[in-house]
Amino acid sequence: MLEATLLILLGLAVGGFGTLVGTGGGFLLVPVLLFAYPEKDLATVTAMSLFVVLANTTSGAIAYGYQQRIDYRSAGWFVLATLPGVFAGALLVGLIPRRVFVLLFAVMLAALGAHLIFRRRFSGFREPVRGRGTALRRIRDRSGQRFIYAFRLWQGMTIAGGMGFMSALLGAGGGVVQVPLMTTILHFPVHIAAATSQFLYMIIALEATMVHVSTGGLGWDRELGQASLIALGAVGGAQLGARLALRTRGEVILRALASALILVALWLTLEGLRF
Known about the structure:
The chain has 275 residues and is mostly helical. The protein has one domain (2-272). 73% of the residues lie in helices and 5% in strands. It has a two-stranded antiparallel ribbon. Helix 1 packs across helix 3 (42-67), helix 1 (2-21) crosses helix 9 and helix 7 packs antiparallel against helix 8 (190-214). 51% of the residues are buried.
């Protein structure tokens, strides 16, 4: 009973924060699962995380869809680009030693957190991206706020392809990298990036979970039950996170994400060196 309660509370926290920053929460969940269940292999841990990410991102995508902040046109192209990487990542995770996996995860989080902290702050208006392959988007959300931005579609699909591979490999949803890249390279407004990332990783998590299930990475007994309890909490947390995003400035979201990345990376590095 105590384990079930703790798993639900873990899902609530992961779902709430993950949806606020548009990541799915896997970058928080994977480290916890690694050290809460050291007897589980990497394929099982990533499969459990992706199952929770699927529940979390589905709930968050519904909330963001209601807010009308999802760029469905761009997400559709990005999903197509993720397919090869998702299958490759899900199949390769079982070949990586545990210590290498943990330290790789830590390096990725630390690098991204540092980038967000030290990046040059932008002031004023960006000149629209022009030229062949440019996608122009105009979105008005439910509250009437307008978002106008442009990006190079090939860049977006390249980023999405890499994120699909990383998501299936690390079980982290990939949005932890996708959202910053969408805001800095593709010039997405941060709120649109978080909402679109949530929808995109709902699809990616579904693809990757299906691959893990088909290869035996996610068992149908204990692991699925544990993942379901975390997912139960994540669904409620996702709704809270989406509502909180409406009242939070974009810069605050990025700072919260950067701080979380650095802290988790430090913890992972210390724990990983003990293996």
